Amino acid sequence: MCAQAAGDGMKTAVAIFFYRRPEMVAALIGILRHHRPPRIWLIADGPREGSMHEKELCLETRKVADTAIDWPCEIRRVYAETHLGLRQRFESGLDELFSKESEAIILEEDCHPLPDFFPFCEEMLARYRGEARVGGVSGNCFLPRRQAVEADYFFSRYLHIWGWATWARAWHAYDRNRWAWPAGGFRHYFPKSDQREVKYWNRIFGRLALGKFSTWDYPWASSFWRAGWVSITPCQNLVQNVGFGPDATNTRDLQINTGIEREDGLPPPYRGPQEIQADEVLDRLVFENHFLRTEGRLPLWPRLFRSLRKRLSRN
CA 68, CA 64: separation in Å to the nearest integer? Predict the structure, then answer.
């Protein structure tokens, strides 16, 4: 552990979640070096049992994280001895993070922020700290590349997590054991949305309920919607996801479109809407430009999901 950083730089803690990709952790810490956060949480999953190669990669990645931070800061390490998996590692890591921090900026090893990401997150965390209707700050903008937006940020029902920030008050309200399939399906959460969006989320949560994948972000999204929260979304993309490919934990499809970065910057002062409510028009564009791209890759099992939805809504 090293001494607390002084001066007028960043004040907010940064958490880095990583696993087995040392070169990405090195590059991410190289970006952090320019901003010098005063507290860094290094949160790592452990190797799968029986894989010496994976064990070596995990140890190498931790060594990179331990040695690459060369500015005055406080370092907290949360290293799993065994493999927890994506959901348990994130949930337990965020539990520990927010047991000590009132707010934090959160990055994964492959989410590399652009220069304006940290100032934007810090300003939004301070501006909406006491606003219970706001659940988090995203670093991503998934609007179409040529979409004109008058403000610097907008409120959205979606909290994108390729680089994001939130408060302990929001994470502590998350009940991981109570993600709910609302009565009547996701029309309950999206009453003004078109049927495609409702069908999309019914399929996603159907797959989750059937155990087709185990992750933390969809239950977190369900909790977010159930609480009626909105996120703060910048009108420029402030984070690049550089992790697509065969070594990724989830997003391995190289065909997924990542060319939506808008890199012309987002300097302060940040102008946003006066009323805190999700922008239905912009959210629909985000759905069409980002989420709907994966629709063709999801199985359509309508009778099964109708039956499953009825059963879950009775629980």
Answer: 6
- C-alpha count within 13 angstroms, C-beta hemisphere, residue 172: 11
- Whole-angstrom Cα distance, residue 305 to residue 302? 5
Q: How far apart are CA 116 and CA 305, in angstroms?
A: 42
Q: Both tokens of residue 295?
A: 């629709």
Angle at CA 282, nearest 5°, toward 251 and 170? 65
**Tally of domains in the chain:** 2
104 and 135 both lie in a single domain: no
Question: Which structural domain, as residue segments, surrounds residue 100?
Answer: 1-109
Cα–Cα distance for residue pair 185/225, rounded to 1 Å = 13
- Residue 241 three-state SS: strand
Q: What is the pLDDT of residues 48-63, one digit of tens each?
A: 998 899 999 999 999 9
**CA 221/CA 227 separation, integer angstroms:** 10
Give the span between the Cα atoms of 256 and 236, in whole angstroms.
20
Beta strands (DSSP E) in 47-95 are 74-79
> What CATH number should be reported for the domain holding residue 101?
3.40.50
| Under 8 Å between Cβ of 198 and 185 | yes
- The predicted-structure confidence for 261-277, as pLDDT tens digits, reads as follows 555 689 999 999 999 99
- DSSP letters along 113-176, please? E-TTHHHHHHHHHHHTTT-TTEEEEES---S-TT---SSSEEEES----SSEEEEHHHHHT--T
Tell me the pTM. 0.86
DSSP 166-213: EEHHHHHT--TT-----TTGGGTT-TTS-HHHHHHHHHHHHHHHTTS-
